[in-house]
Specification:
single chain; eight-stranded mixed β-sheet; six-stranded antiparallel β-sheet; 18 strands; binds aspartic acid; binds magnesium ion
C-alpha cells in the first residue's frame, strides 16, 4: 500500500466527462489499496474568466482589493472539488471535498500570490485509516489565519498545493496528471526529436521551470526539493482501464539526484524569446557605476538576468550590457534614462529581437568544456553570441531571435539528446 497525492490540472477536468474520467483514475488507485488525496484545479478557462470579471467590475479605481480578487478566483477550484467528490461517490468510492480554509491550508496574507506556511495532515491521515475516505482538495487556495480571509497562491498554484499536501501527509509520491505525458529534453514542437526524460533532478527541474517549461509552477518544484517530495508528471489522457497501478506508467519523475543512476551531462535545453538586451555605452570604469544602473532597476522591480561588463581599453570608460524580460523593456529604458546623470553614459543601445538559450545539467558540475562545445557548434553555423552567463549546472547564451530554432536543434544534437529515429 502506498499513500498518493493525485493532482489534476484544468484541461484534465475541463468538462463533466473528463471529471468522470478523473474519478476512474482515482478509483483505480483506491482499488489497488492506496490511500489517496486528490488536488484539483479549476475547469480549463474558468480562472481566466473569473480574473476578467474582476477586471470588468472595476470602473473608477485602477486596482482592485486583492482580498476580494481572491474570493472570486478561488471559487473555480471549489466547483471542481465538489463535482469530483460527487463523481467518485457515483462510482461507490468514499470521498469528501475540502476547501483551503477547511483543512486548513494556512498561508501568508500576500493575496494573489500567497505562500503556504503550514498544513496539518493528521486529519486526512486519520480519515484514510478510519473511513477509507478519499480527500478531494481544492488547489490554489488557502487561508490567512489571523484575518480569516481566503487567499490564492498565484497562477498555476494548484501544483504547489499538491506538493505541499504530499509533504504534509508524508505521501510516497505526488502524481501530477496533466495534458502532456512528462518533461521533455526541450520543446517537442521545436525539436521533433526531443525525448521524454524518465527522471530529472529537482535542481534541474527548477531551472527548466524557471526558464519557461510550463509543466509545473516553479514554487511547487522548490517545495518538492525542500521536503523531498517525489513528483511524477504524467498524462491524464491515458485511459484509466489501460493503466496497471503496480506497473511503470509513462511519465517523468522529479526526484533527488541520488535517485538518478545514469546521470547525463546535459539534461535539457530551454529557450525564451521574451528577453530584451540593453547596452549602456561608455560609462566610467570606477566603483559605483554598476550600483547606479542596477539599483534603480531593482527598485522598479525589474528582474535583470545576464550581465556583461567589458574591460575598458583606455582605463576610463567601458560598456555594460544586460538583459531584462521583454515585458519590462520600455520601463527599463525609462529607468536608465532617468538615472542618466547618476550613471553618466554616452549612449544606450538595445534590442528586443533576441533569444536566450539555456543548457541545463547537473553533470556539468563534474565535466569541463561543456559550454566550449556549444560555442564551437554555434560558430560553425555562423550564429553570433551576444552574451553568456554560467552557473554550476547551467549556461545561457543570448543570440539573435531569428536563430532560436537552429541553435536549439544544434545543441540538442550536440549533447546527444536526440531520440533515435524509429
Ligand atoms: N486555476 C488556477 C490557475 O488557472 C490554479 C491552477 O490551475 O493551478 O492558475
Ligand atoms: Mg498548471
Amino acid at each position: 500500500m502506498a499513500r498518493l497525492v493525485m493532482k489534476f490540472g484544468g484541461t484534465s477536468v475541463a468538462d463533466i466527462e473528463r471529471i468522470r474520467n478523473v474519478a476512474r483514475h482515482v478509483k483505480r488507485e483506491v482499488d489497488a489499496g492506496h490511500e489517496v488525496a486528490v488536488v484539483v484545479s479549476a475547469m480549463a478557462g474558468t480562472t481566466d474568466r473569473l480574473v476578467a470579471w474582476c477586471e470588468a467590475a472595476l470602473k473608477e479605481r485602477r486596482i482592485f482589493d486583492a482580498r476580494e480578487y481572491d474570493v472570486v478566483v478561488a471559487s473555480g477550484e471549489q466547483v471542481t472539488a465538489g463535482l469530483l467528490a460527487i463523481a467518485l461517490q457515483d462510482l461507490d468510492v468514499n470521498a469528501r471535498s475540502w476547501l483551503g480554509w477547511q483543512l486548513p491550508i494556512s498561508t501568508s496574507n500576500t493575496h494573489g500570490s500567497a505562500r503556504i506556511l503550514d498544513i496539518t495532515g493528521d486529519k486526512l491521515i486519520r480519515r484514510f485509516a478510519e473511513r477509507q475516505e478519499v480527500a478531494v482538495i481544492a488547489g490554489f487556495q488557502g487561508l490567512h489565519q489571523e484575518t480569516g480571509r481566503i487567499t490564492t497562491l498565484g497562477r498555476g498554484g494548484s501544483d504547489t498545493s499538491a506538493v505541499a499536501i504530499a509533504a504534509a501527509i508524508r505521501a510516497d509520491r505526488c502524481d501530477i496528471y496533466t495534458d502532456v505525458d512528462g518533461v521533455y529534453t526541450t520543446d517537442p514542437r521545436v525539436v521533433p526529436r526531443a525525448q521524454r526524460l524518465d527522471k530529472v533532478a529537482f535542481e534541474e527541474m527548477l531551472e527548466l521551470a524557471s526558464l519557461g517549461a510550463k509543466v509545473l509552477q516553479v514554487r511547487s518544484v522548490e517545495l518538492g526539493m525542500v521536503h523531498n517530495v517525489r513528483i511524477f508528471v504524467r498524462s491524464s489522457f491515458d485511459r484509466p482501464q489501460d493503466i496497471d497501478p503496480h506497473g511503470n506508467p509513462p511519465g517523468t519523475l522529479i526526484c533527488d539526484e541520488e535517485e538518478i543512476v545514469e546521470q547525463q551531462v546535459v539534461t535539457g535545453i530551454a529557450f525564451s524569446r521574451d528577453e530584451a538586451q540593453i547596452s549602456v555605452r561608455q560609462v566610467r570604469d570606477q566603483p559605483g557605476v554598476a550600483a547606479a544602473i542596477f539599483g534603480p532597476l531593482a527598485e522598479a522591480n525589474i528582474n535583470v538576468d545576464m550581465i556583461v561588463q567589458n574591460v575598458s581599453a583606455d582605463g576610463k570608460t567601458t560598456d555594460l550590457t544586460f538583459t531584462v524580460p521583454a515585458a519590462d523593456y520600455q520601463r527599463s529604458l525609462d529607468v536608465i534614462d532617468k538615472a542618466r546623470q547618476a550613471i553618466g553614459y554616452t549612449r544606450v543601445d538595445s534590442a528586443t529581437d533576441v533569444a536566450k538559450i539555456s543548457v541545463i545539467g547537473i553533470g556539468m558540475r563534474s565535466h569541463a568544456g561543456v559550454a566550449a562545445q556549444a560555442f564551437r557548434a554555434l560558430a560553425d553555423r555562423s550564429i553570433n553570441i551576444r552574451a553568456i552567463s554560467t552557473s554550476e549546472i547551467k549556461f545561457s547564451l543570448l543570440i539573435d531571435a531569428a536563430f532560436t530554432e537552429l541553435a536549439v536543434r544544434t545543441l540538442h544534437s550536440l549533447y546527444g539528446l536526440d531520440k533515435a529515429t524509429p
